Automatic annotation (TrEMBL), chains A, B:
GO molecular function, one term: transcription cis-regulatory region binding
Keyword field: DNA-binding, Transcription, Transcription regulation
Protein name listed in UniProt: LysR family transcriptional regulator, transcriptional activator of nhaA
Family: Belongs to the LysR transcriptional regulatory family.
Location of the HTH lysR-type domain: 1-60
Species lineage: Bacteria, Pseudomonadati, Pseudomonadota, Gammaproteobacteria, Oceanospirillales
Cross-referenced SUPFAM superfamilies: Periplasmic binding protein-like II, Winged helix' DNA-binding domain
PANTHER family in the record: HTH-TYPE TRANSCRIPTIONAL ACTIVATOR BAUR, HTH-TYPE TRANSCRIPTIONAL REGULATOR
Amino acid sequence: MKLNYHHLYYFWQVARSGHLTRTAEALHVSQSALSHQIRQLEERLGQKLFLREGRTLRLTEAGRLAFDYAEAIFRQGEELTALFAEGGHAHREVIRVGAVATLSRNFQEEFLRPLLDREDLELSLQSGGLDDLLRRLSAHRLDVVLANQSVRGDDQHPWRSQRLARQPVSIIGATRLGPLAPFPEGLAGRGLIVPGPESSVRQAFDGLCELHRLSPTIIAEVDDMALMRLLARDTGHLAVMPPVVVRDELRVGSLSDFGALPGVFEEFYAITIRRRFESPLLKRLLNQSSEALLPGRRE
Amino acid sequence: MKLNYHHLYYFWQVARSGHLTRTAEALHVSQSALSHQIRQLEERLGQKLFLREGRTLRLTEAGRLAFDYAEAIFRQGEELTALFAEGGHAHREVIRVGAVATLSRNFQEEFLRPLLDREDLELSLQSGGLDDLLRRLSAHRLDVVLANQSVRGDDQHPWRSQRLARQPVSIIGATRLGPLAPFPEGLAGRGLIVPGPESSVRQAFDGLCELHRLSPTIIAEVDDMALMRLLARDTGHLAVMPPVVVRDELRVGSLSDFGALPGVFEEFYAITIRRRFESPLLKRLLNQSSEALLPGRRE
DNA sequence: TGATTCGTTCTTTTTAAACGAACGATACCT
DNA sequence: AGGTATCGTTCGTTTAAAAAGAACGAATCA
């Protein structure tokens, strides 16, 4: 009881033009053949797709529904054939990476570095929210999603999260603030910029504060690492963030690392979809990334 | 030179399992038939999809590409058949409306009102950004998009914008601010909340200010009408917005309309896609909406 | 009213898909 | 190593599905 895509194609063509005879001519088949095939589709689906009103055809509600699906299906098919038609030559390898927009750019760059100097590779990098990216991953429009949290897969969405890196998290602030006692003393009377309440870093940090009976003054909750970096640099407040994010500023000396927070880590995950044939390049990339970036990598 | 979806289906099934023989058994065809059909697909596309390495199959890069498309195509097909299989009964009429999230809720409700009390109709209402909604419209996942700007269609995207309503725009503020001289005098020394610079209302308002040699103090630029309504109610600032948005507050008396701005209008558009068979219900809805809501409707 | 257009239905013809046996290559086992 | 089972390919043959073509009926137009 499977759908016959040949029938659906004929239906689609007739539905978009509205005329059986003209469509038959355009497709170089007889109208009787068309009529018959469409009738078979209706039988298979169990519902009328056209209302035959005299000698004109009108779509039924079911037909409208089927038409919308057919449109989506055959547009993709056309896209596919176009892709193969133009590029008669061999296809370059493509890796499509989605990155959660709030992720550290340094981390993204680190991950992509092995790919950047390869001439034979086409790299597509897309930013967005995690939900959006996961949707694209499920639709096979992405090969991997970089995120700072893991997701659990289920039957519907066979996602697989692989931890790539685990960065220590520190108290970061402008060097001009002068020397600061290490955590937890140094925090007294200071404003803090912290990650949003959803993030794992924030939750670990809150736990740590509770342990030390601290209730620091939260100035801002910021999810975007790039923004947090700017705020740490340009305000007099302290930020809770991984030092790797502000690597350059630490080297130049405009920002200082006032000490790592014990037990607080920012974790990075590569989310992929289980598939029979994985791209060997992607596989290699994930393996070498988790080896290179995993614990205690100096940056 | 058209794509054979039957071939593609076989390829898809083989590619997802990785084995030709097992797939042949599962599909109740001989392996020779499968092998032959896949070979034909390769010939049609002009490229190898599998690397035959001894007695194992591996996807080529082109194969990976084709597989992703096949996945998208046949998932939709399965969705379609599932839809018809469960709902053996006649399909209820469906109208899928997308509304730009920043649009006045009152306007949306007004538009949808004729549909709400119909038992025989299934209504789907989706919010989002204009770009996102237009994409869904093009993919036939929406029937109509409500927006506060018109879009021009092109060959790729045969959009059609139809103006539904044109609302006057006023200076709105908390009643407790006391009586206010009409525009432009009343604005002197007041903070203003205005729509964002992209909106047509804002552009018309800026033009009006220039005409009167006014440069009012902009407190905030807000695109979301619901948010603007809250700000007008809860702050001491004046807002530039259509009175219809705060209809309830005006009636209760918590907000006052300090006078319409000449020549400034908020316009509402219904964006649809040209198609052969339009839903008669949608057609009727658009017609009666533009009649009912067009100029000077009291609200 | 009669010619014409357009979709349907039937039978016959043509085309394409499926089968099954033989073959070749590879992996596995002892 | 050498035998054997497994897996994909390639044939010629068979079978099933799609197309053609003619006859029919209903609606449209002059």
